[in-house]
Design brief:
Chain B: Keywords: Cell membrane, Membrane, Transmembrane, Transmembrane helix, Transport. The complex is a heterodimer of chains A (336) and B (300). Chain A is of the alpha/beta class. Chain A contains 12 helices and 11 strands. Chain A has an 8-stranded mixed sheet with strand order 5-6-7-3-8-9-11-10. In chain A, helix 4 crosses helix 5, helix 4 runs parallel beside helix 6 and helix 6 runs parallel beside helix 7. The longest helix of chain A has 18 residues. Chain B is mainly alpha-helical. Chain B has a single domain, classed as MetI-like (MetI-like fold), CATH 1.10.3720. Chain B is built from 12 helices and no strands. Classes of the chains: A alpha/beta (336), B mainly alpha (300). Chains A and B meet through helix 2, helix 3, helix 4, helix 6 and helix 7 of A and helix 1, helix 9 and helix 10 of B.
């Protein structure tokens, strides 16, 4: 058994664009474009990026909701890139997902008990009493009272619903849990509680997490590794402390600088404001060269060539021609 | 237990699957739905207790001939008058509710039984199976249901059972269309994705996850359709392709009374009035139920 729960190698997911009467293929949406990383057992990888950067598609491809276009996925020392439906069903027990919006991820016509029993029924776990015992165990695990089992989702608050979503994901004792923006639909006070719960559960059950978010302020206390995504590619990949102390990709810097601050002490911890201009380009018309050059304040002629992910002196991997120069303060914004 | 769970203990929720109190409250708000409910309950009551309500049960179902009483206008003895062979029209109209309701319920049961599973399969499976089902549905929808029913009724013998088959034949595609549309929008909901992620089969997703979310739409549609099915049945009866005399079917009764218009107006008018009121009742109730069942409007 290797130490890695997940190994992703050169993963690509393209969606064809078909146009015209004969549905001729005219191009691809490169939602996930050549991504590689490894994830150790019991750790958390945060995937960060704007809307439209391909975070969710990456997660769904890893979860095998989509068939990958290219590349390999190794899960728990096993190649799962091309497994069939039958094996996929078995695999579902080991990798689970917590969805973004708890008010739509729970079937409004079902009771909480039915929602928690569904995974057990699908995989034919135990008899009626054993399932009932497991359901009670699960609801206690997410710190909700057992009376909630007889309720409908719409009588629960957002945070409570998300706890049910987490309990459902844990029902089959998965090894890997993909958290797809689990807190983005919740208000801030509840967010913190859900994050605390997830961290406690990780310790208790030795879970491995992939944490998808657009909110960098949550990442620091939660993740071990961070991958910053832009237009389907990873532009910076490092451990969490390095990312916050030495962000080297201009895109990462601008994301960090967009975290709202309350007082001066906080603002000192963040890099100088680098406002992002404009919208993320359409993945159907990827910019040539560095994908970020259309919005990057440092961009020069050199950026017409695509940079590779390269190891920097801090140990992080960054894809930017000026990563070294930026780290030494040689480059100033606004050259263009 | 965290503070969040404690505070929300107060937030009370319904424990039952369906909140009857709230449903009644919402239905009550609209006077017209109440009128609809009143009419529908009345028609059902008439249908069930017909033998005890009517003054002349023998007139209703049989062909008793009483020339001494023929063609009498409405009176205290015969509320709706009598027909050309002296039968009490009031008795026949009350009994007619049985025929019409049975026709409506059975036609819709068949239509739902065929249409709903097809719509679910077409929506969830999609692809070639879905396209095939929906094109067949489109072909059926292109033919007006009355014309289709006329054709089937003309081929088969005009008995009540055959009429039901004839009408159902043109009715199921509406349910397929309706459910297909619902499924397409529900398919993108996260709970379907979540279910897929748990490893659920397509059958489970279709019939256990998605179908319960379609029931309210189906019930509303069925209630609204009830009136139209009764109307279609009466039209066939009027054209002589429906229930045959002496069955007290409203459409057939209008056809029989039509020749005596306008002098003996009561013979066609009262069965016609019964159709009008019943159809109106189901339509009003259907509209009311649409508001009652809309859980998403008061979800929070």
């Amino acid at each position: 058994m290797s130490n890695n729960m997940l190994e992703i190698n050169g993963l690509k997911k393209y969606f064809p664009i078909n146009k015209g009467f004969f549905k001729k293929k005219v191009g691809d949406v490169k939602a996930v474009d050549d991504i590689s990383f490894t994830l150790e057992r019991g750790t958390t990888l945060a995937i960060v990026g704007e809307s439209g950067s391909g975070k969710t598609t990456l997660a769904k491809t890893i979860m095998r909701f989509y068939d990958p276009t290219e590349g390999t996925i190794n899960f728990d020392d096993r190649d799962i890139t091309n497994i069939d439906q039958k094996e996929l069903k078995l695999l579902r027990q080991q990798m689970q997902m917590v969805h973004q919006d708890p008010s739509t991820s729970l079937n409004p016509r079902k009771k909480i008990r039915d929602i928690l029993e569904a995974p057990l029924l699908i995989h034919k776990v135990g008899n009626k009493q054993q399932r009932e015992a497991r359901i009670r165990e699960l609801i206690n695990l997410v710190e909700l009272p057992e009376e909630f089992l007889n309720r409908n989702p719409h009588s629960l608050s957002g945070g409570q619903k998300q706890r049910i979503g987490i309990a459902r994901a844990l029902a089959l004792n998965p090894k890997l849990v993909v958290l797809d923006e689990p807190t983005s639909a919740l208000d801030v006070s509840v967010q913190a509680k859900i994050i605390t719960l997830l961290r406690d559960l990780q310790k208790k059950l030795n879970l491995t997490y992939i944490f998808i978010t657009h909110d960098l302020s949550l990442v620091r206390n939660f993740a071990d590794q961070v991958a910053v995504m832009y237009l389907g590619s990873v532009v910076e990949y490092s451990d969490v402390e390095t990312l916050y102390n030495h962000p080297l990709n201009p895109y990462t810097q601008s994301l960090l600088s967009s975290i709202p601050v309350v007082n001066e002490n906080e603002s000192k911890m963040l890099p100088n404001k680098i406002p992002l201009e404009g919208e993320i380009p359409s993945p159907t018309k990827m910019p040539e060269g560095c994908k970020f050059h259309t919005r990057c304040p440092y961009a020069t002629e050199k950026c017409k060539q695509r940079p590779e992910l390269e190891i920097t002196k801090y140990g992080s991997r960054v894809s930017c021609h000026f990563a070294e120069d930026i780290s030494e303060g040689k480059v100033k914004a606004g050259i263009r | 237990m965290s503070a969040e769970t404690v505070t929300n203990e107060v937030a009370k929720g319904s424990n039952s699957r369906f909140d009857y109190k709230r449903a009644w409250y919402k239905l009550k708000k609209s006077k017209l739905s109440l009128v609809g409910l009143f009419i529908v309950v009345g028609v059902i009551f008439m249908a069930i207790f017909a033998p005890w309500i009517v003054p002349y049960p023998a007139d209703a179902t049989g062909a008793t001939i009483a020339f001494d009483k023929m063609n009498q206008p409405p009176s205290l003895e015969h509320f709706f008058g009598t027909d050309e062979i002296g039968r009490d029209i009031f008795s026949r109209v009350v009994y007619g509710a049985r025929i019409s309701l049975m026709l409506g319920i059975l036609v819709l049961a068949i239509a739902i039984g065929i249409g709903v599973p097809l719509g679910l399969i077409a929506g969830i499976w999609g692809g070639k199976i879905g396209a095939l089902i929906m094109r067949i549905t489109d072909i059926f929808l292109a033919i007006p249901s009355l014309v289709l029913a006329l054709a089937v009724a003309a081929i088969l013998e005009p008995t009540l059972i055959n009429i039901m088959i004839a009408i159902s034949f043109g009715w199921w595609p509406w349910f397929t269309r309706l459910v297909y549309g619902e499924v397409l929008s529900l398919k993108d909901e996260q709970f379907v994705l979540a279910s897929e992620g748990l490893g659920a089969s397509k059958w489970r997703i279709a019939f256990i996850e998605v179908l319960p979310n379609c029931t309210s739409t189906i019930i509303v549609k069925a209630t609204l359709d009830m009136g139209f099915v009764i109307l279609t049945g009466a039209s066939l009866g009027f054209l002589g392709l429906g229930a045959q005399p002496p069955t007290p079917e409203w459409g057939t009764m209008i056809a029989e009374g039509r020749v005596y218009l306008p002098e003996m107006w009561w013979q066609a008018t009262f069965p016609g009035f019964a159709i009008l009121v019943t159809v109106l009742g189901f339509n009003l109730l259907g509209d009311g139920l649409r508001d009652v069942f809309d859980v998403r409007l008061d979800g929070e």
